[in-house]
Amino acid sequence: MKKLALYSKIIDLKNQGFSRRSIATKLSISRNTVKAYLDRDENEMSEWLASTRSRKKALDDYQETILDWLRKNPDMSAAQIGDWLEERHYGSFAESTVRRYVSDLRKKYKLDKHSKRRQYEAVPELPMGLQGQVDFGQTWQTTTSGSRIKLYFYAFVLAHSRYKYVEWQQTPFTTADLIRCLQHTFKFLGGKPKQIVYDQDRIIVVSENNGEIIFTRAFQAFHQAEKFEVIECRGFDPESKGKIENVVKFVKNSFARGRIFRDLSTWNLESMAWLKRRGNGKQHNGTKQIPAVVFQKEQSYLQPIAQYQPVTKQVIKRTIRKDNTIMYQSNRYSVPFGSYDVHGRKVILQIQKQQLRIIDQETGEILATHQVSHAKGRLIQRSNDRRNRQIGIPELKAQVVQMFSQVKAAKQFVQQIHEKYPRYIRDQMQVILRLQSLYSKKELDKSLQFCLDNQLVSASEFKTTLATLPGYEAHLERLQAEAIELPVSQATKEKLKSIQPEVRPLATYTQILKGAHYGTN
């Protein structure tokens, strides 16, 4: 009821001789409210109403930020906005507060939310430890350079507690990927459910022979070792795995939508932090319980994990050579110019259907894809991997300067590099230009200033500085603190124990302090 209309009704009833108690009963309001209204005359009431209309709301300080999110992502939910506010340390707000505020903004600025509606049928709740559901999803994300990248994710949910696990990669899932993700899931849960529901997917099923499911050889071996029941969900019966469909939608809408992609390792860290904070840490709309709390009870109902060791193909690893190529079967395959790193950049080779994919071992970035050559001693090179000689050096230098906000400082840095490496200035500029797609202008500016302040004059030193920005390290440290560590096999742990860092004599560091340089161009 509007305040002014309520005030009129209270005054009218008072004039009719009703007591405060009777007025409160008739209007279904408290006696304190009746007293507060009757204690004001008409002028005081008008002033008070005007003050309530102009009262500042808790989220007003972030209104422009929220409006920017809604304009860029019209179908963004209030729950995701609340999560983004919390993730960016703006504060933790009640979901109802965020929901009302977002609803008011949509009405005021006519920001319609376009969403598709689908009808569902309620299904009974399943007992603890009985069932887990698996599905896959895809999203398109904007990178820090403004380009678009397609990501693939695996999602798992325990049907009773709604406890979730999510893992991302940059390539379509294979049977080996699924087995790895299931193993990570079981480690994450500390056990496994009796049943797993999945779609009839080619990475799991070879064919269906008169109702009998024939699994792929790799999945069959894993299935027999772990001894869980596999339940197939058919296309016309989506309700049998409705919970995981909701999780896939939840991951897309609450985590991925509008989020900027930097690299795969950071993305997975952010995903695990989101799971802990939101996916498993907030009350579920259906059960009205927090999945992480319910899971503490359900965990004791899970089955023990078998020590399954999959028979995997040997991983092919290479180090990028100085000429920005890798060797495979006596041929050289190119990677983008500037990929070489003086410290030895490691890559993994993946061969599928006569295609060679070169993947950065640390970030998971696909550097290049080539057709496998059956000849020997050849250079297989893509045209866009070659050094660009069509653009003149002055134009290259101008393009580098345009990467930065501080034009004067950028010109100084470029000139210093030109004076130090006159024969290699084209290569130096092209290495820096390639970094533009990987970092924001703010990060590029920070690295530029650091290099100028510390007399670091080369493209490789500029690149190294970018990779060790304090802000980026702090960001990763915070995500690692929030995230739950992915499981590591015992074999890997044993291998890590044997690694010993290189120990230099103390005299080396004494020389550095005196001005000597090590490992620079």
Automatic annotation (TrEMBL):
What SUPFAM superfamilies does the annotation carry? Homeodomain-like, Ribonuclease H-like
List the GO biological process terms: DNA integration; DNA recombination; transposition
- In this protein, which residues make up the domain named HTH IS21-type? 5-70
List, for all copies, the residue spans of the domain called Integrase catalytic.
123-299
Recite the UniProt keywords alphabetically: DNA recombination, DNA-binding, Transposition
Single GO MF annotation: DNA binding
Entry keyword Transcription: no
Source domain of life is Bacteria
Cited PANTHER family = TRANSPOSASE (PTHR35004:SF6), TRANSPOSASE RV3428C-RELATED (PTHR35004)
Q: Which NCBIfam families match?
A: transpos_IS21 (NF033546)
Protein family: Belongs to the transposase IS21/IS408/IS1162 family.
What's this protein's name?
Transposase
Natural source organism: Lentilactobacillus farraginis DSM 18382 = JCM 14108
